[in-house]
Structure formats: C-alpha cells, structure tokens
Protein: Phosphonate metabolism protein PhnM
Organism: Luteitalea pratensis
Amino acid sequence: MHFVEEVALVIAARLRTAAFGVACALGTGTIGQAQPVAPIAIRNARIVPVSGAPIDGGSIVLVNGLIKSVGSNVDVPAEAVVIDGTGLTVYPGLIDALTDLGMAQPTAAPPAGAAPGGGPNAPRPPSRIRGPEDRPGSTPWLQAADEFRADDRRIETWRNGGVTTVVTAPRVGIFPGQAAVINLSGERREDVVVRSAVAVPLVMTPPAGGGTFPGSTMGLVAYVRQVFLDTRYTAEQVKRYDQDARGKARPETDRTVQALQAALQAKVPFLLPAGNEVQIDRMLALGREFDVPAVLYGVHEGYAAAGRIAKARIPVIVSAKWPEKPKDADPDADELLETLELRDRAPHTPAALAEQKVPFAFSSDGLATPGEFLASVRKAIKAGLPADAALRALTIDAARIYGVQDRLGSLEAGKIANVIVVQGDLLGDKSTVKHVFVDGRRFEVPVDASGAAPGGAGRGPSARPSEGDRR
C-alpha cells in the first residue's frame, strides 16, 4: 500500500471515531438516525379508536413509534413506561387538513412572472408578463416536504392542543406547489414527513397583488383552463414524439406542464378553492371538463350546494374559520342580507355535507390557536353535525382524503403512534389535553398551554370569495 493511501485510511478512521464519540456524548446514538423510545402503555382509560366502538377501561401500547396493541386486554411489555389513564380518554391525534404550518414566508417564493422552463431563464418582471405562456404564479414542482421548516414556532402550540399531523402547502402563487402530510414531531425535516406530494393546491388570487395578467377573476379562470389545456396537449405531443422522434421537432420543455402532467398521471388530487356557491359550481365544472381528481376547499356555502357536491363524488376540506363581522367594523354600518345569511348558515355546512354522505375534513385556515379550531368544530356540532362525524373529520376522514388512512387517523395496531390523552370530552365545552404522543414520542404539555400562536395563524391557500364571484 502506498504511503498516501495509508495516511488517507488513518485519517478516515480517526474521523469515524471522533464522530462516534460526539454522537455518544450527545446521547444521539447512530448519527443521522432517529432512535427508538421506551415502550409506553396507557392503562385503564376510555379509548376512542374511531375505527370502532369506544373501549371503557382499555389499554394502548406504543412501541418504536407504532401502535403495538389496543383493547380491553393487552399485554404490556415489562420495560414499558405505564401511564394511569383512569378518568382520561385516549383519541387519535388530530389532523389539520390544510395549512401553511412550517412553510417559509412569502418572500422566499419565486417572483411572479418567472419564465417557464421553455423560455429565458431570467425572471420576467410582472409588467412584462404577456399571457399564460409566461406561467405567472406557477411553481407546481415545489414540494412542501422539501420546504418544511421544523423550527416553526407555531408547531409546539398546535401540538399542545392535540393536533399531531398537518397537511401543509406553499401558499404563494396560482399553482404554488405540492402539499405534504407532516407529523409535528422531530427537529429534522427528514423525520417528520409522512407522505409527500399528496395534493396540488390551486389558489385563485392574482400574482403580485394584481395589476398584471391574470389580474381578475375571469383572467384567473382563463389562465387555469389554458394551463390544463396545455398540459393535455403537451402530453399527447410527447407521446407521439416518443413513438417516432425521427424528423420531428422535440416538444418544448415546460416545468409547470411537466409537474401537473406527472400529478395527473399519478392521480394526485387537486385542491380547488370554492368559498361560495358560484365558486363551488365553477370548480365542479372545471373538474369535470379536465377529468381532474378534485377536492374542494373552503366551501362555506356548502350548505347550498351539498347535493351537487355529493353527485360529483368530490371530497371537501371545510374551512373552520367561520365568517364573522370584523372587530373594527362600524357597529352602525348597514350590511348586506347575504353577508348576514352567510355568517349564520356557514357553520351548517358540515351537517349538510354529512347528511349527503360527502367525505369532508376541517382546515384551520388562519385560526390562531388549536383552541379556536376546536371551538369552530363545536359550533358546527351545535349547528347539527353529529359529534362522531366531527371526530372522523378531524381524524380518519382527513387521512382518507389524502390517502394515508393506512397509517394515520385511528387507533389500530400497526398504525403510527399519534395519540392524545384528554381529560373530558374532546369535543365538549370543557376538555384539557394532558398528554401528546407523535411518532410514539411523548411531548410534555404545559399546564397553562392556552394555544396562543406566536407569529400568528397557520393559513392554508385561501378560498375566500372575491368580488367577482358574488352573485
């Protein structure tokens, strides 16, 4: 062996030894790998698995991040940490079905008017956007799983309130990027992603605050339709070229079209914003026209369109941020009858959807705390939504909409150990989250955890009605 090779081997060995020593000193074990936690058993509790009937005096065992067993008579490992569940109720961790929790601030997004993959590489100023060919506000290739920031200060607040999983997505642009299912555990992005690329959100807000194409509601609709038409056309063009490329010009590369085409081929659902009845009908028509696997979100006027949504067999993400009168509004100012009607009837939407057997989940949509989130769900219950349907919407139905019901949403052996332990009825007027487990890790809940969110709310892509959408 040459002298240089011997030196290289010695240095490499010493580096490995040093790295192992640092890992041991920090108590992290093998570098780069999450370490198993001690088994945990919760005994003598009321267990609400959601997938079946409640179990009084039951037990649940968590081992290596998974639910090992649940029932009235289960074996508890001798080394398990045992929690006395007397007087407590165990639920699956709650799921916020659409938010921007963990996403970077809007300034990190690509500028509106950035050139598509087939054009010049330099971003085009908004004033120079010529039309849909410039793909304004479109970055559907971005992945929330890659952009997620585990140091978001809001994460602890929402976890303390019982939300263990979120579906988070970029929010800037018309096609801002693809959503991911994220567990609120761990300090590294690699440890928290349950599933990436679970949905493609559409946001009907003009890029760069308007003033350029598409700067109106009709402009947005025209642009979205054109993008879907281009995606369909390009797919056919690429197919023909791949079958016989000789003598033909190769198809132009367009990152927006490529990302959407891949999502459509994989049957990834598209999240379509539909706050009011006009938007609901518009998005139902868009889904039919382009055969898009659709999920409506927002849907405050779903009470008026539940039958049509059911006929279309499309799931719904209901915004739990019910319309309210602005706190700084003039108390003597006149208000439109339709505004008053919306405030009164919006909380009836979940009950109307449940009656029509439409699958739905809840999103926090900018609410500042998990306490406000659950209060809004309770308001829907008071408006006629059965409590068991509300709990399913917060757990298994949310998981099912995003295709992760095999690992989240209920307390069953083999599923991810996302568990909350509550004193009182979770959806009653008085309840307290006592223990939270995410991926089997126990997180201490402060006694005074009020759910106040530093830095504001977790807002998903907005489905607020625009002026052009009002009847």
